[in-house]
Amino acid sequence: MNRLALFVPLALFIGLSLVLLLGLDKDPTELPSALVGEPFPAFNLPSLEDEQSTFTEKDLKGDVLLVNVWATWCFACRIEHPMLNELSQQGVKIVGLNYKDQRVSAKAWLVERGNPYQFNIFDAQGSLGIDLGVYGAPETYLVDAEGIIRHRRVGVVDERVWNAEFRALYEQLTGAKQ
After folding, report:
1. Burial of 100 (0-12, 13-18, 19+ CB in 10 A)
2. Phi, psi dihedrals of residue 157, rounded to the nearest 5°
3. Closest Cα to residue 166, out of 152, 146, 154?
4. How sure is the predictor about 4, in pLDDT bands with cuts at 50, 70 and 90?
5. Model confidence over 70-102: pLDDT tens digits?
6. The whole model's pTM is what?
7. Contacts 24+ apart (CB under 8 A), 170-178
8. Is residue 97 part of a domain?
9. Total of domains in the chain
10. Which domain holds residue 170?
11. Residue 8 belongs to some domain of the structure
12. In this prediction, what percent of the chain has a pLDDT beyond 90?
């Protein structure tokens, strides 16, 4: 047997190890989105609060706002929710996208924890989530008054994240100081 052939598994192991090590310095919350700079995807989904009412992407135009993907099954959403309530009290407009959830549970969540949302889109099947490229809840999108996605955050938006990633862009888009 060729002695060189004995080193092939070792060379493959070393090569694979290097590839994996190079990926370890990546922040998983900084997932790229092909939608940043693009219009919010078209949709027609019911309201969480009133299943007879529906919303479309046109309902996201006219104001700078956050679109927050949330669900009652999402533990991180529990951590994020107080910050969303605080931002809402400061005048930040937030639209909820209730993702792959149960309507009754979601409504009870909002009664119990407060409702920071202007309105809630009910995405029971996750169809809008698929169009947005949602990895899971929570995710937050900053959408300008024309309905263009300007920023995306995968993971919890807390005070540190708001100040580091959203505040300056939000103020620039709204012309308001937070």
Report:
1. middle
2. -100, 110
3. 152
4. low
5. 999 999 999 999 999 999 999 999 999 999 999
6. 0.81
7. 170/64, 170/92, 170/142, 173/64, 173/142, 173/144, 173/145, 174/64, 176/91, 178/90, 178/92
8. yes
9. 1
10. 29-174
11. no
12. 76
Contacts of residue 85, Cβ cutoff 8 Å, sequence gap at least 6: 113, 114, 116
Pair 129, 33: CB distance under 8 Å: no
Give residue-wise pLDDT tens across range 118-163: 999 999 999 999 999 998 899 999 999 999 999 999 999 999 999 9
pLDDT of residue 21: 64
Domain assignment present for 84: yes
Residue 10 scores a pLDDT above 60: yes
As beta bridge partners, residue 67 has: 95, 141
CATH number for 123: 3.40.30.10
CB-based contact 82:70 (threshold 8 Å): no
DSSP label of 42: P
Question: Tokens standing for 72?
Answer: 């009652």
Residues 154, 135 contacting (CB under 8 angstroms): yes
